[in-house]
Write a sequence for this structure.
């Protein structure tokens, strides 16, 4: 049976989450040996990505990315952080929010949270309007 990157990531997280600090190095060494034995070292970038997502969820950390045409005011950032748990359906201890500028948006914003995308951009509104007007 072929082991998927997500399965490796979950196994690694579960192996090291409660391990004493002095044992983590040995666990990681054994993990790399297992990847080598299974000819899976090429999956390391995918495993790392899944590991980060799994660990963040397990530890109550949400990573959000917001794209906008212009910088977003700090009070709106705080409001987004406050409503994020309700949107994501989980209580988070910490919410990291990364801002990114994109002139393509014209206005509004796109919020990426976990596996969800909330598109409140002007560009998207025009697309929806266009589709609505030209529907037969």
């Amino acid at each position: 049976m072929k082991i998927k990157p997500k399965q490796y990531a979950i196994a690694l997280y579960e192996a090291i989450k409660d391990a004493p600090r002095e044992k983590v190095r040995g666990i990681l060494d054994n993990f790399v040996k297992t990847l080598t034995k299974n000819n899976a070292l090429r999956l390391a970038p995918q495993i790392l990505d899944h590991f980060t997502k799994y660990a963040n969820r397990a530890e109550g950390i949400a990573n959000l990315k917001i794209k906008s045409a212009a910088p977003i005011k700090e009070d709106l950032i705080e409001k987004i952080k406050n409503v994020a748990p309700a949107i994501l359906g989980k209580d988070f201890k910490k919410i990291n929010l990364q801002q990114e500028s994109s002139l393509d948006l014209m206005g509004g914003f796109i919020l990426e949270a976990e596996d969800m995308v909330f598109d409140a951009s002007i560009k998207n509104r025009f697309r929806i309007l266009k589709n609505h007007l030209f529907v037969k």
About this structure: Residues 5-57 form one domain. The chain has two domains: 5-57, 61-133. Strands lie at 61-68, 94-101, 108-113, 116-121. The two ends are 50 Å apart (CA to CA).
